Amino acid sequence: MAQTFAEDQYGRKIDRCLTDTLLKFGGGLALGGVFSLLFFKRRAWPIIMGSGFGIGVAYNNCERSLNSSK
After folding, report:
1. What residues contact residue 33 under an 8 Å CB cut-off, 6+ apart?
2. Which residues does 47 contact at the CB level (< 8 Å), separation at least 6?
3. What global pTM score does this model have?
4. Alpha-carbon gap, residue 36 to 47, rounded angstroms
5. What are phi and psi of 44, to 5 degrees?
6. In the chain, where are the structural domains located?
7. Rounded-to-integer distance, Cα 58 and Cα 28, Å
8. What pLDDT band is residue 70 in, cutting at 50, 70 and 90?
9. % of the chain with per-residue pLDDT over 70
């Protein structure tokens, strides 16, 4: 049975957080872009807001993951 060190577990959590942040940011950016093109006459605020929501959700998930006891 292989040992897992605390540093390795922390590194995996950070990697998952970075991946989750990138995916949620990209999804918010894409969704904001679609809404900007279709509904808001090519304004920038839906793109910025979608990206911000994506980063906020990813931050919340990362905080919960890093503060868990597992």
Report:
1. 46, 47, 50
2. 29, 32, 33, 36
3. 0.81
4. 7
5. -85, -25
6. 29-65
7. 11
8. low
9. 96
